[in-house]
Amino acid sequence: MATLFDPLQVGDIAVANRIAMAPLTRNRSPNAVPKPITATYYQQRATAGLLITEATAISHQGQGYADVPGLYTPEALEGWKAVTKAVHEAGGKIVTQLWHVGRISHTSLQPNGSKPVAPSAITAKGKTYIINPDGTGAFVDTSEPRALELSELPGLIEDYRKAARAAIDAGFDGVEIHAANGYLLEQFMRLGSNQRSDAYGGSIENRIRLTLEVVQAVTREIGSGRTGIRLSPVTPANDVSDPDPQSVYTTLVEKLAAFDLAYIHVIEGATGGPRDFSQGDKPFDWDAFKGAYSNAGGKAVWIGNNGYDRQMAMDAIASGNVDMVAFGKPFIANPDLVRRLKEDAPLNEADQSTFYGGGEKGYIDYPTLDD
């Protein structure tokens, strides 16, 4: 029987335990460039079996929040090289999350102050984070988007491919395609945000098309064994909705089975909220969802996420419901979370006022058990 602390092969990546650090946006990368303290932050947490970085923009157009990192400038890649080097020196494994926010952005964050892009010109009921001219930060309503032209989609897919290659060149062990939490790829998949009438709208097969084409481009570039994907089948995050998520996501994972991915990272329920949250007329059947993937021949490591505590995680691994568990906020305040979970030691409390933006405080100054 497997345990939370056993090693695991995640595609081409051998990890020391079955604890992943989930992506956590921290807004400490001015001009989309990771700073030296970012290397310290990830190195401190390198005992996780797999570190998944904060969401990282594949292009300037993909930016949706102030001071989040990117993968599209030489300066950003140099910053990430310092991060991957620090993590590997500490014996850790790290992948980066490839991000395009779609409509969850603001004109002030876009190239030349242009509108954000989306499957359809539907403004999200949501907020984003910008830096005001006086240097202060603020949460503001997302801007009205424009619908992507059909002719733009090949270039968008190419941006994902180039970002994946840049990530590997920067020393990452792999990438995670962000197809969750109401960002661009999920906007295409959900009916509430996709009202297109072309080959990327209407039927389920059309709405999942862009995600599958991105997966194909990335895996061809860097290999399936270094590619994961994040999904959130029922989350309402960033104003996404669908009347039948079970059919959408079952079809998606059946198609993903053919790619032999390293892992599938699943947010169970509402992101950061109730695990039993659902959309549509009936509760989401998580066992059937995973079973559909397995029945289609899928063999990727299955990572569970959302509200797991120590006992839940151990039980989920022991039962075989998941192969790995991703922890998010507990890693913010507990750089040595793996040890604390193993020893059933108390956890530090996180200072929520320092989650987004700032410097070392609330970022690299949390004590370990040894401290």
TrEMBL record:
<protein>
    <submittedName>
        <fullName>Alkene reductase</fullName>
    </submittedName>
</protein>
<feature type="domain" description="NADH:flavin oxidoreductase/NADH oxidase N-terminal">
    <location>
        <begin position="4"/>
        <end position="348"/>
    </location>
</feature>
<dbReference type="InterPro" id="IPR001155">
    <property type="entry name" value="OxRdtase_FMN_N"/>
</dbReference>
<comment type="similarity">
    <text>Belongs to the NADH:flavin oxidoreductase/NADH oxidase family.</text>
</comment>
<dbReference type="GO" id="GO:0010181">
    <property type="term" value="F:FMN binding"/>
</dbReference>
<dbReference type="InterPro" id="IPR013785">
    <property type="entry name" value="Aldolase_TIM"/>
</dbReference>
<dbReference type="GO" id="GO:0005829">
    <property type="term" value="C:cytosol"/>
</dbReference>
<dbReference type="GO" id="GO:0016628">
    <property type="term" value="F:oxidoreductase activity, acting on the CH-CH group of donors, NAD or NADP as acceptor"/>
</dbReference>
<dbReference type="InterPro" id="IPR045247">
    <property type="entry name" value="Oye-like"/>
</dbReference>
<dbReference type="Pfam" id="PF00724">
    <property type="entry name" value="Oxidored_FMN"/>
</dbReference>
<keyword id="KW-0560">Oxidoreductase</keyword>
